């Protein structure tokens, strides 16, 4: 009798781990979503603006977010390789999507896109960017652009105007140098790939987006004279000291803070820097401003970047639930709520932002910049950021190789030759992300 | 029957050491992005690695790193340990002080040096520069980046050697030391004829381990410079990491890891030989 009781107890205990699954089998199906690192405030915002309302609106699903930190990418790759991983897959950009789709780890989203109306709701360009081999595998979670931040108070004081051409930019930078200011407040001490912000800027503003498109599609090599001129221009700015003496010592945030204090005049940076404006500008009694980066041939070019993408795991046991999560996110309501409290990370590529209502606390400058970017993308007047459109090894080399040019360990020609060789190898291996045709 | 006690250890070694090691060897001969199915590529990864100038500069940096760590922290450790032995007053306090950096997490040590010492904005170097003593951040100069990182690692590391050497020195028979003192030996003579010969096996062991550890150097380089500027502080492990996790070229990363292992194996050979000799004695 005693032995039988013991056996029953043992079996009961052994079945304990299965209980949650059995419970879910009856009512709720879990939807797992692994997220990268997020501050405690941002984690709360995800809970209150995504998890709780989604679960309330979808009684059959149970969404949970697992914060995996900065190693998300590595953990995800190992998990996906072993056939596990989350239902909603967060990747670092289109180049990762291509490899994962090729390996059959992602679920094609075309049916969901048609059924749930994503094709009508999202900017077509981003639907193209999420494709591999003709099928849709990913939706852009956030998109961004590069431009020129500047200290408007400093500009007004000195009678300066925001530059509209490269020539004006250089004249202004020279004047700033003459006054002992650093023209470009920038640094890469915490994020070495910050180099490619500047490479992306000159590629689009000096070589032009058409030439970058040709290089990305293999119509011209990366050693083309137009690309060479762009890299030479960036090198010239470095040698003239536009980036100041502490580029390798300053973090992105420290460098941006120098613009607020008036030690630096301008900051060529991305829309993610908007989050730093409330921290540094009001305390220095300064006003920030942002314009598109001037180009050689006329109006500014908005280089398009995708910070991260969202997909569905091919092995997901609740793909419908994962699709419902994506559907919930790509809506005016979620866009408005999330961007009101957390700007820069949730700039979802919605086609129509007219129904979006952001909180009064959001900088009008940010709202305006995002509307300009959305309009430019909608009209096909966009450029290319290297971290979005280049395959991984080419992109990594682009970052470190540029330092070799700046520090005179390599000529621009040799740099581009190696870049071109690496690109060709990756292109042959099918690692170049989808490049949508230009309008 | 008692051999069964070895089974758990063997299983752990097989799963955690042997399988990943063999997989690394296999992957070094494969083309793999870490996502799709690997394909056999022969010696392509090694050819690509050896044709890359960055590999050779990383290897050179590893050798420079090894030389630095074979000399500076060992000399500092020996000097401090002998002082602790000969001047007993306050030796416990100094042992704790010297050992403290060892127990601080690497990332904190690195960030403290980066932000509070080297930084031109928030660091001591910046403060001195503003006071008219211009000091450039060593991490920002290609010619000094590796030495700047090595300095931080040295600060973190030498206390460990000091404590190890001190422990070894305390095993030296007191009568030898007293005899040398009575004979009028000065500090240099005491070190040369009494202390160093007595702890030679410990020094040798630490030197061999230094060679092995130097080729595994990763954390401080990665946190402080990520191998830059312009690859000037790149070492083999950061090169392998970049290939694996940024270039998505796991095959070439495995090839670089094998090169690192080669140096480790040479060190291990000498280590095992030394241990055998000691055992025989």
UniProtKB/TrEMBL annotation, chain A:
Q: What does this protein do?
A: Part of the ABC transporter complex UgpBAEC involved in sn-glycerol-3-phosphate (G3P) import. Binds G3P.
Recorded GO cellular component terms are: periplasmic space
Q: Describe, as the record does, how this protein assembles with itself and its partners.
A: The complex is composed of two ATP-binding proteins (UgpC), two transmembrane proteins (UgpA and UgpE) and a solute-binding protein (UgpB).
Q: What is its main location?
A: periplasm
One Pfam family hit: SBP_bac_1
* UniProt entry keywords in alphabetical sequence: Periplasm, Signal, Transport
Q: What is this protein called?
A: sn-glycerol-3-phosphate-binding periplasmic protein UgpB
Q: Look up keyword Transport and say if it applies.
A: yes
Its subcellular locations are: Periplasm
Q: Could you say which protein family the record assigns here?
A: Belongs to the bacterial solute-binding protein 1 family.
Q: State whether keyword Signal applies.
A: yes
Please give the InterPro entries that the UniProt record associates with this protein: Bact_solute-bd_prot1, SBP
In the UniProt record, the signal sequence range is 1-25
